[in-house]
Design a protein that fits this description.
Length: about 450
Amino acid sequence: MLLGNLPHAETCHVNGQPDAAAHFRTGSKPLSVETIRVEWGEVTTPGTQNRAGIFAHNPESPARPSGTQVGGWKRAAGATQQSVMAYTSSVPIALQPNTDYWVVVEIADNSRPRCTYSPNFGADPNAGNPTLSLLSAIGSTDTPAWPVVFTILTLAYALDGTVSVPAPDMSASLYLPATGTVGQPYAGHYTCQNVGTVDAVNDVRCLVQALPDGVSSQGCSISPSATPWRAGDAVPVAQIVRCEVSGTPTTATGVATTLLAYAQGDTNFDNSTARQFITTSAAPPVLAPDMAASLHLTATGTVGKPYAGYYTCHNVGTAHAEINTRCEVSGLPYGVHNPVCTISPGAMPWRADDPVPVGETVRCDVSGTPTDAVTTNVYLLAHAQGDTNISNSEARQSVSISAKPVDPGGNPDPSPGNVQAVPSLSTWGQIVLSGLLLGCGLGARRRRS
């Protein structure tokens, strides 16, 4: 396969040993050189020892090749002739991608030919293809500097033994976080770039598949104009389609996300697909107190009769309740109160602002003797700083207190507060004596009359 020719038209001999060289750089793919072709002009004396080869680049002396040869010299099958001469060898020369090299022609037989390097190449230097420097040199290796600088036009090339055909080449890249969390925002993007030699016009695709649940593609744009882009739109050479990805994962799982970049005429499938595994995990628990209120009161009571019950405030959260803790009740019947609160499991005294560790319960006992017949709505509030679950922070209960019951005979209810005294023996004696005296008095009155 043809690597290329060195374009120049000039008598190329200095001190009987003319040499020529051209600087080039490989593209993003390895380069396999099988043949170096040189077109000679007028040859005054045909030579047999001329040869061509490839040398490494020396960045410290960029105007000429280094002394390190790559792959050995290539020689022609016969003597130097006018027009094309092919320099070949049985073993191709392997060149690395994205690397600077020199093509060197050495004239070793002192034949002093006139040489012309043909500019007939016909391939543009693009991604994946070698590019030729615009500057090269011609002169003698015996002189300290190359005396003549000339222009290189283009370069015909061989890639792994195959001459490239101009075509689009869509390259896929994923830029997505490898992990996400359920319930938390997730964002990333992916790109499809045309790294080929012609515009991607027909059947253009930049398709992503298998994103995490709750995450999706939010639209694409094409650079450098950042205008909206959708499937089927053209992608000119070197331009990039960028698509944003965002959402909130809803499921803890793992997915293998795949991106396909394609256009009609794209035959390089090495870069058409990108893959990435994404894992979404459950959100870690939020540590916070959670005070739950509960009323345990007798629904009814009676004026003048003892009444009892209790209420609780239980920390069912994942963190201790330590600041601004409350277990407050209101609306108890008149005469009923809560004299003391304790916290379990130690039954230690507790009051507002004391801490309530995770899992522990504040219990407040209610007791007293109702004084008024009334129906009241009792309200309990359980709270602590950091408690955001208000669904269990309140409790309500209706309590009805009735009046004392009345005796059907008109006597008050013989309750302990209204028990009638039983007469003693002395009292009974006085009652009998009073009766006798009353009887005597009435008999004396009748005799006088």
